[in-house]
Specification:
This protein is of the alpha+beta class. It has one domain: Ribosomal Protein S5, domain 2 (2-Layer Sandwich). Helices cover about 35% and strands about 30% of the residues. The chain has a 4-stranded mixed beta sheet with strand order 1-2-4-3, covered by helices on one side. A 4-stranded mixed beta sheet has the order 5-6-10-7. Strand 8 and strand 9 form a beta hairpin. Helix 2 packs parallel to helix 3. The longest helix has 20 residues. The protein is globular and about 50 Å long.
Length: about 190
């Protein structure tokens, strides 16, 4: 099974995570930030992963450390569960609508970290989650997970819908990229990912 565990202990956060890439979409997420829990749960459900993620963060300061560190742990979990990435499809691309919002995500599990994120969010917060931290979450996850990531919200009016569509499109793109290719995956002219 492709699973991994990770723990992060700092003066700002204490996080424990467990990930199964070949799950059924079961999420047990508790970050202390309701909207972040909602978005990670959507990601897990639509990617068909199983994730346990618990965080005790310094939310009396603000949400930044919790958001960033949860992203780092999630990226570390992905990287660990992927192992040498042999046999996977490597690339994934998906669109996801949510009512008037439409998002597109493209991933390459190539071990070269890069992230381009354009969500077009207008509100300052979604619940207690600062919207400026959502692109930071996705970038941090990409770098810790050693993947190339492009996430774009193509249209939409409601920021909740735009954020959720972005996470759902990412879920679908990841789901495609982590699948095994029966013809042999992880194609690279270099011979390794």
């Amino acid at each position: 099974m492709r699973t991994s565990t990770a723990t992060r202990q700092t003066k700002e956060t204490q996080i424990h995570g467990l990930l199964n890439l070949d799950g059924s979409g079961v999420a047990k997420v508790s970050t202390g930030i309701g909207m972040l829990d909602h978005l990670i749960t959507a990601l897990v459900a639509h990617a068909r992963l199983d994730l346990e993620l618990s965080c005790q963060g310094d939310l009396h300061v603000d949400d930044h450390h919790t958001v960033e560190d949860c992203a780092l742990v999630l990226g570390e979990l992905l990287c660990g569960a992927l192992g040498d990435r042999a046999g996977i499809r490597r690339y994934g691309c998906a669109y996801a609508p949510l009512d008037e919002a439409l998002a597109r995500s493209v991933v390459d599990l190539c071990t070269r970290p890069f992230a381009s994120v354009r969500l077009g969010l207008q509100r300052e917060t979604l619940g207690t989650l600062a919207t400026e931290n959502l692109p930071h979450f996705l970038r941090s996850m990409a770098f810790a997970g050693r993947l190339t990531l492009h996430v774009d919200v193509l249209k939409g009016e409601n920021d909740h819908h735009k954020a959720e569509a972005a996470f759902k499109s990412l879920a679908l793109a990841l789901r495609g990229a982590i699948e095994f290719d029966p013809r042999g995956g992880g194609v690279s002219t270099k011979g390794v990912l």
